[in-house]
Design a protein that fits this description.
The chain has 131 residues and is an alpha/beta fold. 39% of the residues lie in helices and 30% in strands. Helix 1 (22-33) packs parallel to helix 2 and helix 2 (58-74) packs across helix 3.
């Protein structure tokens, strides 16, 4: 499996490895949304540091963004931290942001897991939504 899901207290941590496909992204999201713990989530950390290749279409990212926007209607408390360094992974995050609206969860891109964790666990008023 090219991804692992780790459930944490009030959060979920995805680690993607190897070749990341659009189907992997969709499937990993469905696994979270279909779980009873989803309603208690306040954060998601998406770790793309071990991804060697990105094989995700724009259509896949549009679907992921629309899934997130629909899920945000039932749980508005989530924020997403994406950890990426390669141009391909960063471009994937940029494509995601292209399709989400202001009604979706706030998300930010980080270079390290430590930075992502600090943002996730910081009081929300320290990091207001970006404009």
């Amino acid at each position: 499996m090219p991804y692992m899901i780790e459930w944490r207290e009030r959060g979920v941590y995805w680690t993607y490895t190897g070749t990341l496909t659009g189907e992997d992204l969709l499937q990993s999201n469905f696994e979270i949304y279909g779980d009873e713990r989803f309603d208690d989530l306040t954060y998601q950390i998406v770790n793309l540091l071990e991804v060697d290749k990105v094989d995700v279409s724009e259509n896949h990212m549009r679907k992921v963004a629309h899934l997130d926007m629909a899920a945000a209607r039932s749980n508005k408390r989530i924020r997403i931290a994406v950890v990426a360094r390669t141009p391909e992974a960063i471009a994937l995050n940029t494509l995601y942001e292209k399709y989400v609206s202001g009604d979706s969860w706030p998300s930010r891109l980080f270079e390290t897991v430590e930075e992502a964790e600090a943002w996730i666990h910081a009081p929300r008023d320290l990091y207001p939504p970006e404009q």
